[in-house]
Fold this sequence. Notes:
single chain; 44% helix; disordered N terminus
Amino acid sequence: MAAPNKGRRPAAGGQSKPGRALAFILIAMVALTGGMFLSHTTTPRLGIDLAGGTSITLKAKSEPGQESAVNKKNMDTAVSIMNRRVNGLGVSEAEVQTQGSDNIIVNIPKGTNSEQARQQVGQTAKLYFRPVLTAAQGTPTPTPSGTPSPSATPSAGGKGTPKATPSATGKATPSAKSTPQGRAVTDALKASPTPSAGKSGSPTPPPSSADSQAAAKLQQQFTALDCDPKKGQAAKAGEGSKPTDPTVACSQDGSEKYILGPAEVDGTDVAKSQAVINQNGQWIVQMDFTGGGSKKFAAITGKLSQQQYPNNRFAITLDNQVVSAPTVSSTLSGSAEISGSFTQKSAQDLANVLSYGALPLSFQEQGVTTVTAALGADQLHAGLIAGAIGLALVIIYLVAYYRGLAMIAILSLVVSAILTYAIMTLLGPTISFALNLPAVCGAIVAIGITADSFIVYFERIRDEIREGRTLRPAVERAWPRARRTILVSDFVSFLAAAVLFIVTVGKVQGFAFTLGLTTLLDVVVVFLFTKPVMTLLARRKFFASGHPWSGLDPKRLGAKPPLRRARRTTSAPVDPKEA
């Protein structure tokens, strides 16, 4: 007597519960579509070739005596920093590339933060902390002798009321009093707490003739300097000066001008900068120093705290403009802050520029061109027509060769298209993904990848039917073999897309990203939609009976006679005692 079958395992692929997979993908589609409407984003963000934008040409210029600085290494570094600045503002699909030996072309798509990106992309962002030697009002000082006016009242120093962030060892407070500023520059240089001073901070030896001439020239520049932003002198103040030399500078609002000593701390000593709100509800830019930068900052603030006003101030300069000039009353270390009349936008802009470092070169804007979307729209129209023709040819082939099975393939393509569109639309505000022409090409190529997965599965089912199996067993037995082939094929496509995304820049990354995304969605659609639908349709008479229009007609496929297993007969062993 044959032993009864115990605990049969369910068929591979979950034949008895295909509804769960279908319910899951349906919920995902509804959630993604609902997310589009809730976020009020129903169309994908477009790149510069489809939406238009701005193209900026920047020309590198070298400082006097540093003509060799315009080289490939510095140009590549500048491109990298500009890219990070633009991406830090959330502007996706921006293109930054060199043209020739000394030009950089920046293409910024039209949309959110594009104007901010234009303002920041070419900013040199050289940050220095310099001691203040002399300060006066920002207007020229008309005196017959050519020396500064003996009574010039300093403003708050840059924007608003600047100050330095107190550390655990000290506190800095802004000055509230006015002090005569009519000292000679040579006296200020001797009192400057820079490395040129003695070890104990004592005045340096009497200056040489060359030093006196340099001091006199600096004094003349300071006297004639007009910091009115409308006059255009403020932007050129101190142009060409080295970090190790004294210089003249203006505050950003033009209310005050300065003679500044050599730089004691620079931007490379800043480890991190961020825009935050202080206890008074004002926006500030907070900077944390590196280990070496903290020691430098403690050394300079320690020396400045022993000086009299205005020599107890240090200026925070950005591209030769004084952003803030606080006074120091004790030694500080660890961190500093730039405060003033910042808005959230201006504080975040400054923090973003400082976070990614200074450009190794100075750049001059050569031209700004507005890029229209007309050419891209024509190319997109042509691309969509090509995609429609390709899709139509695929559908005609599926219908002609697979007949009823073509319905499953078409439904799977529709599901894949809905998921792709919804995800691309939501990725716009989420990670600033922008759809460009290469990305559209990647989506069109994905049609063939998705159709290939259906064909692999359908051919495996047909092979099982040719072996003489009925449809329902054939569907389940074909799935493990087809699944392995589909996974290997999609893995190769995804790997190629990932490598392409890593090693390329600009628009080619859009193609690679879209190709990788649609390849992942192909796996999702085949596993959660195509296979469950095939399992359900295998129970329908139209497909199960092998209708000629089902695409699974055994006669047309040249099927063998049905397989029949030979039953094994077992006889009970004969007992020797009974024999």
